[in-house]
């Protein structure tokens, strides 16, 4: 393990914040807080960084309760211990997705409804940035999910401004792989709760996760190389756009 892991980890988070201009003076940043490994790590890393980053920003958290039974006391206590306000939004997302859904993917509908609840509460709290716990593995998986299942080459951006709400989504963990996030969580002894959703672990994403695991076993530097490819992407090295052909007369 790297000698001063905390320092190394926070430097990677700071680098992403700086490279993509994620946080500015006076920002009110709300961490989308599922209580899982990634968002717990994100919250703690942002809290530590807020002490020595030259820009001053405020932190809040929002936990969207989807309706599955969960004990969130440990999350509340954790937020209290680091002095960050914890907000819960009660929803009936689980019921809507599993009892009232009329077609469509449960994950897509859940994610859409969660986002709606999260953004509404963020605006109510007067926040302008929403921080999400996506890391480098999520970037890579999303890229392959999109390519394999929809035939499109695309990936989410580290920072996205949403016209409709005026909120900016930021992902400060994009330079860190899942195992690096896990090491930070363990070395800092942070608490987390398991995702209670019954389809968790049984989605297309799991197929891509396995594929990524195989790739990393064969090519240990794969994740770093993927990140480098995204950062040095050159349109010239890809095909030009082919316009759809008009109908033949
Ligand atoms: N119920 C929720 N309430 C608030 N934010 C959420 C919730 N679920 C997910 N998020 C946010 O969306 C991000 C991506 O969600 P996803 O469902 O992919 O979780 P994940 O990759 O398992 O992350 P985590 O370990 O933080 O749960 C999370 O890191 C978190 O920031």
UniProtKB/TrEMBL annotation:
GO annotation, biological process: tRNA processing
Swiss-Prot/TrEMBL keywords: ATP-binding, Nucleotide-binding, Transferase
Source domain of life: Bacteria
CDD domains reported in the protein's UniProt record: TtcA-like
Domain (tRNA(Ile)-lysidine/2-thiocytidine synthase N-terminal): residue spans on this chain: 29-195
Binding-site positions, ATP: 32-34, 38, 64, 133, 138
GO terms for MF: ATP binding; transferase activity
UniProt entry tagged with the keyword Protein transport: no
Coiled coil: none
Record-given protein name: tRNA 2-thiocytidine biosynthesis protein TtcA
Gene symbol of the encoding locus: ttcA
